[in-house]
Structures are given as structure tokens and as C-alpha cells.
């Protein structure tokens, strides 16, 4: 999956993180969802110095969702490229401050190689 903005620089509100995390963690208590997400192996959540904000790796959330659907981690590949941090190679709506939301993805059947 990717390239995409990396979790280290993708700041979102805790509410957005909770919405994403609730697809992984069936919990009603919002604080419990955040805590449970932080405790996951390969947690997609990163701390942020701004109150009410966190940083989240959406690619990692998607990978965890696929694992919950029964896809083995060996079949999931995350591109190491950050669109925000690599302006010479990628456009970033967040870096350009255009305020648009654009999400897309490609799922393919691997050839086993």
C-alpha cells in the first residue's frame, strides 16, 4: 500500500483516530480505543505535542484491517514512501494546503514472487 503520507507527519484529531481505530477495536469508550490502539504490535498511532491531536499511519491501519479479514502479513506490502516528505517525487494535498481529501487504494492478486 502506498505511497501515502506517513504516520510520523499525519496529524489528525483524536476523533479521527478513534473512527479509524474503531474498525479494529470493538470498544465503546473512546479513551479505551486510543489506549488499545497504542498497545498493538506495530501500532499505527504516534504521539503529538498538540492537545487533542495524534499522528496516525493510515497504511498500517489498513494492513491491520486486512489481517483481521484473514490476509496474512506476508501478503501485505507497505510502500516506504511518504508523499508529504518527498515533494520531489509526490504531490501532497496536505503539503500544498489545498484542504482536499483524496484516498485511493489498489488491491491485487500477487503472483507468489
What does this structure look like?
The chain is of the alpha+beta class. The protein has one domain. Helices cover 29% and strands 8% of the residues. The chain is built from four helices and three strands. It has a three-stranded antiparallel beta sheet with strand order 1-3-2. Helix 1 packs across helix 2. 20% of the residues are buried. The mean pLDDT is 83.
Uncertain regions spanning at least 5 consecutive residues:
none
Adjacency order of strands in the biggest sheet: 1-3-2
Helix content: 25-40%
Number of helices: 4
Classify the secondary structure makeup into a structural class: alpha+beta
User: Rg to the nearest angstrom?
Assistant: 15 Å
How far apart, in Å, are the first and last alpha carbons?
A: 17 Å
Oligomer: single chain
Q: Main beta sheet: strand number and arrangement?
A: 3 strands, antiparallel
Number of strands: 3
Strand content bin? 5-15%
Number of discrete domains: 1
| Shape assignment | globular
Order of helices and strands: EHHEEHH
Average pLDDT confidence is: 83
Record keyword descriptors for this entry.
3 strands; alpha+beta; single chain; 113 residues
How do you describe this structure in short?
By secondary structure, the protein is an alpha+beta fold. Helix content is 29%, strand content 8%.
Describe the SSE topology:
Blueprint: E1 11-13, H1 14-21, H2 30-39, E2 45-46, E3 53-56, H3 58-68, H4 93-96
Antiparallel strand pairs: 1-3, 2-3
Amino acid at each position: 500500500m502506498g505511497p501515502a503520507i506517513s504516520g510520523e507527519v499525519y496529524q489528525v484529531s483524536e476523533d479521527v483516530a478513534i473512527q479509524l481505530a474503531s474498525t479494529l477495536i470493538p470498544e465503546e469508550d473512546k479513551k479505551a480505543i486510543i489506549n488499545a490502539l497504542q498497545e498493538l504490535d506495530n501500532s499505527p498511532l504516534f504521539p503529538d505535542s498538540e492537545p487533542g491531536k495524534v499522528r496516525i499511519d493510515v497504511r498500517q491501519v489498513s494492513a491491520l484491517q486486512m489481517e483481521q479479514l484473514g490476509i496474512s502479513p506476508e501478503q501485505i506490502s507497505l510502500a516506504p514512501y511518504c508523499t508529504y516528505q518527498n515533494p520531489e517525487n509526490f504531490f501532497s494535498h496536505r503539503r500544498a494546503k489545498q484542504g482536499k481529501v483524496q484516498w485511493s487504494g489498489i488491491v491485487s492478486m500477487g503472483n507468489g514472487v
